[in-house]
Every structure is written in structure tokens, then in C-alpha cells.
User: Which sequence fits this backbone?
């Protein structure tokens, strides 16, 4: 049994894949928890699609893809906010239009600029090609975001729980929102290689949502979510190694299976296990 | 003294509030009334700059109020809060100290003492570790009342605090309002139903985009004023009981 776990470790690409999966497994649920509690889960998907034009441009210009992707993701979030503030258009519609347009622009740019950006690995991840350099970059992003979450925890808690109240108290809500958008974009960039932009939403939401069913406070949701995230990532990589399956989808399916288990068996909220008379007062 | 001068709100071409002027001295409990859509919530938000203000100024102690927001405790309408948020009762109250603690600092003992005192005052200390989603509507409102108390503010703004609350909570709300008034605070409470509690108020502001009347409940709740505020259809559309309550 132990051999099953250690055998793949002889290969460097598997060691790299496992290392980056663990980092992403911790980072995604922490950021994803904020998405869930603000009812903005789909924003993760939106931002993931918005980074494509920037990726393509930075490939063309020969700069690190992170800068282009970040700029492009942030531009997308500004555009959504701008459309909302200037019209009666609701946020879901503004998001849908913006992210599909950005995605389309990205694909056009790839063709026009004739760059060798591998659309497949962008869409579905390419965890087996992860290098030491990638791991270090992902680690730096993760450390920056986790330190920021710790440092601004009480402000972010207020902001995400009661935005109007936070603004009424004079907290810089626009700055917090901006920082939050930056954190999502960076998290997506960091996760792109592991699961790809189509599936990154699953890793942002899945483990954190499972934890949501099991915990009573935000920081517990993040902590327990990170444990599920690590487990899903590791299990996914091993499953893909032994069964010759794509690793991104394997990670996502492990994470979703954990959610189903919690949905049915959570001690307080599980469909089969919750106390029959209790329930929310609504 | 809270001074509101010619306050106007215009949101995407829709008039929310037009040239509202009034002053409130410390120790006054002021009720804000008016029909649905009259701009009661908008006015409370406009005082704090939470909605785009198109004209007018709000001053407190001769300085603009938006420069001293930490002196104002604002309790939003219940519907603005996601009650499924994973947070416990005492951590909701703790939020009130966010600004006073400052960046990068976690709550210490003195903060916890204040949180405890506030929760005890509203009878919710025993439920401090409950997730807020597991409370009744009245209990949830009391938690927000405790949050306002823990902020140690000088001005208190409550938006529709009586909506969906039980009799015990209503009694506690008025008890606390009274204590705050006695200690020289300013209180503005919006509500579309005052029922039998009108006599608790020092003063009323009757609102329908403009300020229609300002004075004691007896001065404000005249038939002329109400017709003016609620329009011609007032007599037919109002619930017959409500008419009685308003005048009692």
C-alpha cells in the first residue's frame, strides 16, 4: 500500500505535480471561501476566462505571462463594475457578456498574433509539465495572498458579511474589493497549470463548499476547505497516474465527491444525518 | 448637534430625496416615517454617503459627518444581510470594533469585554457561539443592536428595526433606545409601522421624497400631513387599523 504512494515519487514530474497541487489545494479554498460567502462563485469562472487576451499578448511580447494575465483579468473586473455603475444592467448579465467577449478576443489574438500559446493546456491544465520555476512562482503568489488574508482578516470578514455596514463604518470598501479581485486573478493564474481555466472554478468552490456544510465560521471554512483541497489534489494526481487519466478532471471529481459526501452526511446539515426537527428558521 | 442641510439624492435620474433639511440635538429619539419608497432608507444612507448625494451637506459638531463615520452606528435592514453567512453571534458584534482596533491588530481583552457587555444588554450572551443563521429574526436584530452598542457611537441610525421581530425584542429595542437617549446620543429610526409606540418618540420626520412634517408625533400625525405624504388614495389604501394606530 505504501509502495502505491511512493512509487510515482521516483519521477521528477510527479514530484513537481504533487508539490504544485498541494500549494493550489491550500490557496484555492481560502480565496474560494470569500467567493462563496459573497454569492459570487461564478466570478471565479469569469475571471478565469478574462485572462486569455492578456496571456496571448504577453506571449507575443515575450514577457512573463503572469503580467499580461493579471492585467487582463483586472481589466475584465473593472469593465464589469463600470457597466454596472453606468446602467441598469445586472451583474450576472454584465459578467456573462464580459467574460465571453474577453475569451473571444483572446482566441482571435492567438490566431492574429500567430503565437504558439497552447490553448489546450490553458483550457485544461498541464500539470505534468510543471517546472521548479513554476512551483516557486506559485508558492510566492500563495504566500502573498495567505499573508494578506491573515493581515486583513477582520476587515475582509466585515466587508464580505455586511458590505453596507463596513462602508458605513468608513472602511475602504472599494480598496478591499480591488484587492479581492487581484487575489482571485492571481489565484487563477497560479492554478491555471494545474487544472486549466475551465476547471479552476471547481477547485475554488468545491473544497470550500464542502467545508461550508461542516463548519460554523469563515476561518474554519477556510482551514477545513484547505484540507479537502490538499486531499483532492493529491488523490487526483495519484488517480491520474495509475489510471492514465487527465489529472485536472481527476482532481475536480475527487473534490466534487467529497462535496456529495458532506451533502448527505454532514452532522448538522447532511440530508441523511441532520436532526429532523431542526433546520434554519426560514 | 446633527445638521442636515438641503440633502438631495438623485439616482440614475430617479429622485430619491429632495432638499431635506433638519437638525437633531443630542438626546433625541427621532422616528422617520413615510410610505414605501418615500426615501426613508435612502435618507439614512445619504447621511453617511452610502448613496450618491447630489446636493446638500451633513454636519455633526460643525464638521462634515463623512469625516467622522466611526461616531455613527448604522444598522441596515434585515433583508440586506445574508443570514447564512458562516459567522457566530459574538463575531458579528466584534465587527463593530474593526475601525477602533485599526489595521493588523486582533481583538484583545478590552474588546472582548465590550462585546460581552453589549451582548448581555440585549440578552444574547448565552447564545454567543451560535451561528447567526440559527437564530430567530428578533434574536438576529438584537445581535445587530449589540453590534451598534459595541461601537460606542454618538449617532445611531436604525433602518426598519422592527420588521419581523417578536414582542420581547421590540421591548428590548425600546429599552436600549431610551438608555441611549438618556446618555445624550442621537437616534434616527426609520419604520413604516409605529403602531402603539409613537409616544416613545421625541420627534418625527414625515418623509415622501421631501420632508413633509417635522415635530412631535402629535404635530406630525395630522390628517392633512398624512394625506400629503401618502397621497389621495391614502384613506382607501391604508389598512383601517393602521389609521387608528397612527392617531392614538
Assistant:
Amino acid at each position: 500500500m505504501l509502495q502505491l504512494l511512493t512509487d510515482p515519487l521516483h519521477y521528477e514530474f510527479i514530484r513537481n505535480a504533487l508539490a504544485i497541487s498541494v500549494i493550489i489545494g491550500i490557496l484555492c479554498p481560502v480565496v474560494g471561501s470569500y467567493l462563496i460567502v459573497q454569492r459570487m462563485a461564478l466570478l471565479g469562472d469569469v475571471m478565469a476566462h478574462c485572462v486569455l487576451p492578456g496571456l496571448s499578448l504577453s506571449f507575443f511580447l515575450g514577457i512573463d505571462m503572469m503580467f499580461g494575465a493579471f492585467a487582463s483579468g483586472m481589466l475584465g473586473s473593472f469593465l464589469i463594475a463600470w457597466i454596472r455603475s453606468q446602467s441598469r444592467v445586472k451583474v450576472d448579465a454584465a459578467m456573462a457578456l464580459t467574460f465571453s467577449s474577453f475569451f473571444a478576443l483572446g482566441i482571435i489574438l492567438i490566431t492574429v498574433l500567430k503565437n504558439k500559446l497552447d490553448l489546450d493546456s490553458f483550457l485544461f491544465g498541464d500539470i505534468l509539465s510543471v517546472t521548479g520555476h513554476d512551483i516557486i512562482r506559485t508558492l510566492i503568489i500563495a504566500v502573498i495572498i495567505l499573508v494578506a488574508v491573515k493581515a486583513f482578516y477582520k476587515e475582509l470578514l466585515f466587508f464580505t458579511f455586511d458590505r453596507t455596514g463596513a462602508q458605513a463604518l468608513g472602511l475602504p470598501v472599494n480598496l478591499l474589493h480591488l484587492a479581492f479581485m487581484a487575489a482571485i486573478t492571481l489565484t487563477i493564474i497560479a492554478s491555471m497549470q494545474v487544472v486549466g481555466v475551465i476547471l479552476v472554478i471547481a477547485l475554488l468552490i468545491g473544497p470550500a463548499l464542502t467545508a461550508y456544510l461542516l463548519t460554523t465560521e469563515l476561518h474554519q471554512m477556510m482551514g477545513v476547505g484547505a484540507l479537502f483541497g490538499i486531499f483532492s489534489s493529491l488523490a487526483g494526481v495519484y488517480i491520474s497516474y495509475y489510471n492514465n487519466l487527465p489529472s485536472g478532471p481527476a482532481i475536480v471529481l475527487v473534490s466534487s465527491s467529497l462535496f456529495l459526501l458532506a451533502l448527505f452526511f454532514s452532522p448538522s446539515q447532511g440530508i441523511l444525518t441532520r436532526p429532523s426537527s431542526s433546520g434554519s428558521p426560514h | 448637534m446633527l445638521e442636515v442641510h438641503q440633502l438631495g439624492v438623485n439616482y440614475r435620474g430617479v429622485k430619491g430625496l429632495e432638499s431635506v433639511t433638519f437638525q437633531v440635538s443630542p438626546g433625541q429619539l427621532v422616528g422617520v416615517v413615510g410610505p414605501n419608497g418615500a426615501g426613508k432608507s435612502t435618507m439614512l444612507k445619504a447621511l453617511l454617503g452610502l448613496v450618491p448625494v447630489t446636493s446638500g451637506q451633513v454636519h455633526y459638531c460643525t464638521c462634515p459627518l463623512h469625516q467622522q463615520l466611526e461616531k455613527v452606528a448604522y444598522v441596515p435592514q434585515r433583508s440586506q444581510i445574508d443570514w447564512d453567512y458562516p459567522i457566530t453571534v459574538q463575531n458579528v458584534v466584534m465587527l463593530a470594533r474593526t475601525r477602533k482596533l485599526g489595521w493588523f491588530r486582533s481583538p484583545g481583552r478590552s474588546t472582548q469585554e465590550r462585546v460581552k457587555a453589549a451582548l448581555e444588554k440585549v440578552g444574547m450572551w448565552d447564545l454567543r457561539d451560535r451561528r447567526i443563521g440559527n437564530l430567530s429574526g428578533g434574536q438576529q436584530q438584537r445581535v445587530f443592536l449589540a453590534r451598534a452598542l459595541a461601537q460606542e457611537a454618538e449617532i445611531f441610525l436604525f433602518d426598519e428595526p422592527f420588521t419581523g421581530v417578536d414582542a420581547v425584542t421590540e421591548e428590548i429595542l425600546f429599552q436600549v433606545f431610551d438608555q441611549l437617549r438618556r446618555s445624550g446620543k442621537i437616534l434616527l429610526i426609520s419604520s413604516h409601522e409605529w403602531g402603539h409606540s409613537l409616544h416613545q418618540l421625541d420627534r418625527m420626520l414625515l418623509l415622501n421624497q421631501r420632508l413633509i412634517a417635522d415635530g412631535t408625533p402629535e404635530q406630525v400625525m395630522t390628517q392633512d400631513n398624512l394625506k400629503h405624504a401618502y397621497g389621495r388614495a391614502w384613506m382607501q389604501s391604508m389598512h383601517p387599523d393602521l389609521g387608528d394606530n397612527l392617531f392614538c
